[in-house]
Amino acid sequence: MPCYRCATRQTDPGKGPSDWKRGVRDGVQVLVCPDCQRLHDWQADLDACAECGSSSLVRQLGETRCRACGSTVAEVGGAPPVDEALASDVSAALDRRFRSYPDSQVP
């Protein structure tokens, strides 16, 4: 998953914890790269907890949970919107990998 501000892709940290930060923006979990953390007020862009106002939110299994106070909000309204181009790419990749053959043409 890339940084939501600059689209830089995350790389594996050498040793120890990652310098990347996680947050929730418009109900979607996002990552923030170290450069954007230094150059922008990135926390102002994130959603805040309705209970305590903290921006330390994480998305897990359809819920948004506050790391500061522990409050949890379930997803409202069903599944998030689907990126049609991504869905098409994934479908094509799965078809290539697990190509189904008619019974008469099984290799």
Keywords, separated by commas or semicolons:
about 110 residues, alpha+beta, 3-stranded antiparallel beta sheet, two-stranded antiparallel ribbon, 2 helices, about 20% helix
Structure in words:
With 107 residues, this protein is of the alpha+beta class. The protein has a domain of 57 residues. Helices cover 19% and strands 20% of the residues. It is built from two helices and five strands. It has a three-stranded antiparallel sheet, with no helix packed on it. The chain has a two-stranded antiparallel ribbon with strand order 1-2. A hairpin with a 5-residue loop joins β4 and β5. The longest helix has 14 residues. It is globular and about 50 Å long. The protein starts with 20 loop residues before the first strand and ends in a 10-residue tail after the last helix. The mean pLDDT is 82.
In which order are the strands of the major sheet placed?
3-4-5
End-to-end separation: 37 Å
Poorly predicted runs are none
Overall helicity: 10-25%
Radius of gyration: 19 Å
Average pLDDT reading = 82
Shape, principal axes of CA atoms:
globular
How is the biggest beta sheet arranged? 3 strands, antiparallel
The chain-level structural class is: alpha+beta
- How many helices? The count is 2
Q: In total, how many beta strands?
A: 5
The helix/strand order is EEHEEEH
Share of residues in strands: 15-25%
Give the structure's gist in a few sentences.
This protein has 107 residues and is an alpha+beta fold. It has helices at residues 34-39, 84-97, and strands at residues 21-25, 28-32, 57-60, 63-66, 72-74.
